[in-house]
Amino acid sequence: MTALSAIRQPQAAPEPAQELNGILHLLTCGSVDDGKSTLIGRLLWDASDLYDDQRETLKKSGRTAGGSAHPDFSLLVDGLVAEREQGITIDIAWRYFDTDTRRFVIIDSPGHEQYTRNMASGASHADVAIMLVDARHGVKRQTRRHAAILDIVGVKRVILAVNKMDLVGWSQEKFRAIEADFRELTLRFGFRDAIAIPVSAVGGDNVARHSEHMPWYTGPYLLEHLERLPARDTAPAGPFRFPVQFVLRDGLDFRGLAGTVSAGRVCVGDRVTDASSGKSAHVLRIATMGRDLEFAQQGQAVALQLDTDIDVARGAVLSCPQTQPTVATHIEARLVWLWETPFDPRAGYLLRTATDLAPISSIKIKSLLDLETLAAQPAEGASVNDIALAGITLGRPVAVDAFAALPGTGAFLIVDATTGASVAGGVILSAANGGAADAASTFRITREMLAKGICRDLGSSEQDRHEFQRRANEAALLLRAAGVDVKLEL
Amino acid sequence: MTAPFSHLDVLEAEAIHIFREAAAQFRKPVLLYSIGKDSTVLLHLARKAFFPQRPPFPLLHIDTTWKFKDMIAFRDKTVRELGLDLIVHTNREGLERGINPIDYAPSVYTDVMKTQPLKQALDQHGFDAAFGGARRDEEGSRAKERVFSFRSPGHRWDPRRQRPEMWNLLNGRLGVGETVRVFPLSNWTERDVWRYIAREGLDVVPLYFAARRPTITRNGQLLVLDDDRLPLQPGETPQTRMVRFRTLGCWPLTAAVASSASDIESVVAETLSARTSERQGRLIDHDQTGAMERKKQEGYF
Ligand SMILES: Nc1nc2c(ncn2[C@@H]2O[C@H](COP(=O)(O)OP(=O)(O)O)[C@@H](O)[C@H]2O)c(=O)[nH]1
Question: pTM of the predicted model, to two decimals?
Answer without folding.
Answer: 0.89
